[in-house]
Amino acid sequence: MIKVDREFEIVNQDKINQGKKQAYSHRVASGIHGFDALINGGMLRGRTYLLAGPPGTGKTIFGIQYIYNGAKIYGENGIYVTFEETPDQLRRDMLHFGWDLGKLENTRQLILVDASSARIGLSSQENYIVHRPFTLDSLLSDIDKNIETIDARRIVIDCLDAAELHAKSSEEYRRYVFRLSAILKTLECTSLLISESPGDGRISRYGVEEYVTDGIIYLSSTLEENRRIRKVEVVKARGTSHSQTVEEFEITSNGIEVQMYRTRDRALKRLS
Ligand SMILES: Nc1ncnc2c1ncn2[C@@H]1O[C@H](COP(=O)(O)OP(=O)(O)OP(=O)(O)O)[C@@H](O)[C@H]1O
Ligand SMILES: [Mg+2]
In the chain, what percentage of residues exceed pLDDT 70? Predict the structure, then answer.
């Protein structure tokens, strides 16, 4: 198991070396219709990506879809740490898309970690929880344990802002996101760290996560002709080429579906 010392150094050198060996070549597909083409076929294995956007833009659905497809289509087990919704709420809501999370939990392909109860100081009936009292270190150690339990390859943390509240300063938060990102890499996980954007055009409040993570996927929405249009953009992706365009997406009964070129087609239609 990975151990973190008081100076927040990772001390298991074997794991680090293994992580480095695996970190190149492979692409990790999200399986989200139309999305992987925006990032040249998929995210890079072992990297950490920031999934940001203002409230209600589809971050949780994107995150769950990434984990669900990983287990169902690509044979990669996943961990979803939820700070906002309870696991039960997620299990219920995701059934609307035909994603039976409970089934994946039963077959040990998925662990839903309840961080929502610890955060507000309530007890939880869940099997996997972030222990109280909630600290950044207890979160890291619980994540580490759960990754080992099912040999997870994908992890989503929804969302970082909850942890930010527990950091005493932006510097401590920066160190925390950095450590989190480093530990997930050594464990060979391809990770999405969800973060809420302030809604004023900035991706994150302090800019910390943007520098520390390997890539940024930004979800947003605009009002056009009295209709809310959902948008997705790969803002940065270290080590790979990626789309430079903002594309539209819809949330359908199958989850997120990216509609390539729809923005361009709409503009052309207006001109004709
Ligand atoms: N079954 C569904 N079918 C279609 N659209 C849905 C469905 N369920 C939710 N949505 C849409 O998705 C939005 C919520 O998506 P999601 O929870 O992923 O957003 P979020 O970015 O995580 O929000 P928050 O910042 O509040 O956590 C809803 O506001 C709604 O517009
Ligand atoms: Mg959410």
Answer: 90
